[in-house]
């Protein structure tokens, strides 16, 4: 593991100076990285398409998103609120005298990031984990996903061309990944991938003599619930929307809805779903391994006596093509295996006989990235009950929409109770993703010059701060 | 474990209504709890003194701090900024259209708290973990520390008298603690105690089918560094301050400085330290077990050929009395065992021959709650170098002061890299301790009535919110 040692040693050596660049300095670097990627747009998309077959349209969109993500973190740095800068001036309190205390978040140090297979750009080498860690001031060592090695290398070269030496490195291979998680100088890990792989690395991180945070996004079935009123009022629209969401990216999104709860006897909705699935064109899956896993899982489900096929894609499947298939099950027959994630264009439709039966089934769900509710205008009490139940398991609640499509923004939450993520208090998408790479430090009675600029009496770049308990905004 | 099952079941049943009380409702309860404790002040102090021998003065102070802590969290609730309420209105972005997204923190659900031995009030049943969890909206089940069972019971009865049924319970016993950490309905754990005990429970929490966050405060030696200038300019003052801090509470504080780095040849400082230690009166330790561990550890250190005793308390030791003792070692002879925490009134003085030797020794430290630096006015470059090094291991940096005394305030950080705490991103003291019991949820395209009040267009109780990327304060 000489590569890992070299990369981590360089990262550790670069950490203090990288932090020392400050918010403005790092914001410039993120903007430069976004520009550098955009300049090489055609090369990046071409290589990524060769390796993933996701198609130029999707990949151009993903690159745009990736550049925007880098820019968002530059904005987060300019704002500065993420630091939680807090100053308590010396004084007396009912619990005794208090010294001058000044607290803010500081980078944790070098971190490791594991790229995902299904977003070769936005959740891989130049993706959200890397962007947020660099923004935080943490040097990053990325473990490349084996499904797109050349895309990873190209993106790494582009990032390295603008970043200070040591602050970004790429390593590859299963053993390199394990060595990274166990390396004493690595202070946190970001991961997007399977529940099995993520749990194994999570366990490694926690078994260290000094456990470190492991931020893994693992698995989610993203339940979608249709109430009786919605089923009768919007059957065709929901069927089209659900199947579109389920088959987007050939069902290989972490937010793919894999469970659909509909009222028993909603014949119109059920047949609309079957018709929509029949019309889906089979797209190529990301890799032979993923394709094989999908085909095997569908075959297993076909032999499950409780499941009934209610729709299959009619189109002739091509090479490593994922042909959509929809199963149904009565809520009373639901087992734990039906509630598990299956990567690819398939879902289980659960038919519930009563609200009590629906709520009971929902209470058996594992943690989820998202939960979606389609309801009618007159179902206020029912919606309140279902939201209270779903909020216990999910990080994002979608109303009358679909879970695929994760906006990069300030208010996004992409995370949830295990196994959706290993740390439900955090997100891997959106502005607050930066919080994973920071820890608080309080300076007690420090002289002005020994403080980080953000905690000095007059900070050179204004930011929101809480002073003696009151939040204050810059320039007010 | 029928007690655990009863307590957790009641907590789970109470969770939704407790959250539904809202910030104002829970702030009222915290204030009521503070008043109820203050009303029973004499009873609480009397029972705690019988069990811990900490003395009425210290215990009255600790109760005052405990009540103030409850009030601080009421203030945190009124402020509302801790929720991180964020609204992104629907619109177009460079990465595509964005739906209406509204994010805030919500309670994780029922939590478990393990009381500490050394603060029977402020870090036990009515302490900071419980106060912050209740503020967050999480029902709490406390596992009582066996060293003060009657104090725990009395405080539990007082809290239960003002809190809604199910939101607070007390259980006792080693097995109850393990069962709590493993109970499916428990969503997070707070712990203050030994590294061995904390690590065992941390491992249990992570071995669950669904791992949950374990916020443990374990061990810290709290290094204190004296620069050459400080040693020559303020020898007497530093010796008195250090020995006072080391022996406060008979050396049984988690912030006790257990390592003192001084320049080799600082004879004046060394002899002042010896004189101060000789004058310390031996106080009673918290329990027979803690006393025995202290005596054993001191005996082991006395047989360590690298360590030399430079001062011992002259006073006749009484029953379970901890007699202060100070060792010295040359930095070149420092081993890993010298760097480990030893509960009780003892410390190791490390004499460094050069700044390089000092920095090398500091780089070998484990994670710390605090690190303290005493320096002279002309040592700006040296201080910068030492602060950069110490910040990598500690959560609080104390300048020309002493680490004991942890203010309850907005800017306090009481946590650090492992083993100081199991999660360096969090604190167990101060306003932000509430963050341990919360997780973010984003509402996508939710109707106004389905949103928590804090995310509605017009929140009934104003709070700081970030709207379309801009932080806004109430009433501005």
Automatic annotation (TrEMBL), chains A, B:
What keywords tag this UniProt record? Answer: Oxidoreductase
Matching Pfam families: Aldedh
Q: Name one GO molecular function term.
A: oxidoreductase activity, acting on the aldehyde or oxo group of donors, NAD or NADP as acceptor
Disordered: region residues: 452-476
- InterPro entries associated with the record: Ald_DH/histidinol_DH, Ald_DH_C, Ald_DH_N, Aldehyde_DH_dom, Aldehyde_DH_Superfamily, ALDH_KGSADH
Aldehyde dehydrogenase domain mapped to chain residues: 3-381
Under what name is this protein listed?
Aldehyde dehydrogenase (NADP(+))
């Amino acid at each position: 593991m000489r590569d890992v040692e070299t990369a981590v040693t360089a990262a550790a050596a670069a950490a203090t100076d990288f932090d020392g660049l400050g918010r403005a300095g790092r914001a410039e670097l993120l903007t430069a990285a976004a520009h550098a990627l955009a300049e090489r747009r055609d090369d990046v998309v071409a290589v990524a398409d060769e390796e993933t077959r996701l198609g130029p349209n999707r990949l151009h969109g993903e690159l745009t998103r990736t550049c925007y993500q880098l820019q968002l973190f530059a904005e987060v740095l300019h704002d500065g609120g993420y630091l939680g800068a807090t100053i308590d001036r010396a004084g007396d309190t009912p619990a005794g005298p208090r010294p001058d205390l000044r607290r803010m978040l500081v980078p944790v140090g070098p971190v490791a990031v594991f790229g995902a297979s299904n977003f070769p750009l936005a959740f891989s080498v130049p993706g959200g984990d890397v962007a947020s860690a660099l923004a935080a001031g943490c040097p990053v060592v990325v473990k490349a996903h084996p499904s797109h090695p050349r895309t990873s290398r190209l993106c790494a070269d582009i990032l390295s061309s603008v970043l200070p030496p040591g602050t970004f490195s790429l390593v590859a291979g299963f053993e390199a990944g394990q060595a990274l998680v166990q390396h004493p100088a690595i202070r946190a890990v970001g991961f997007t991938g399977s529940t099995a792989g993520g749990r194994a690395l999570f366990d490694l991180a926690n078994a260290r003599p000094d456990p470190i945070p492991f931020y893994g996004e693992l698995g989610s079935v993203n339940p979608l619930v249709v109430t009786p009123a919605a089923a009768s009022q919007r059957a065709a629209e929901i069927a089209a929307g659900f199947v579109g969401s389920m088959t987007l990216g050939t069902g290989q999104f972490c937010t793919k809805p894999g469970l659909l709860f509909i009222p028993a006897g909603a014949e119109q909705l059920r047949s609309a779903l079957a018709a929509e699935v029949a019309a889906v064109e089979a797209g190529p899956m990301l890799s032979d391994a993923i394709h094989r896993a999908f085909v095997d899982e569908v075959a297993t489900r076909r032999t499950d006596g409780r499941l009934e096929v209610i729709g299959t894609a009619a189109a002739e499947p091509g090479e490593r093509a994922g042909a959509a298939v929809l199963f149904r099950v009565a809520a009373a027959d639901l087992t734990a295996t039906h509630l598990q994630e299956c990567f690819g264009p398939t879902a289980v439709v659960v038919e519930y006989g009563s609200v009590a039966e629906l709520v009971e089934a929902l209470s058996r769900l594992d943690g989820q990235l998202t939960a979606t509710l389609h309801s009618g205008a007159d179902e206020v009490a029912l919606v309140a009950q279902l939201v209270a139940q779903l909020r216990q398991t999910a990080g994002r609640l979608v109303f009358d929409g679909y879970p695929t499509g994760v906006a990069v923004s300030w208010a996004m939450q992409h995370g949830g109770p295990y196994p959706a993520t290993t740390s439900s208090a955090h997100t891997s998408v959106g502005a607050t993703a930066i919080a994973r790479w920071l820890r608080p430090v309080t300076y007690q009675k420090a002289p002005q010059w020994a403080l980080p600029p953000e905690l000095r009496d007059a900070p050179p770049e204004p930011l929101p701060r809480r002073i003696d308990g009151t939040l204050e905004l810059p320039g007010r």
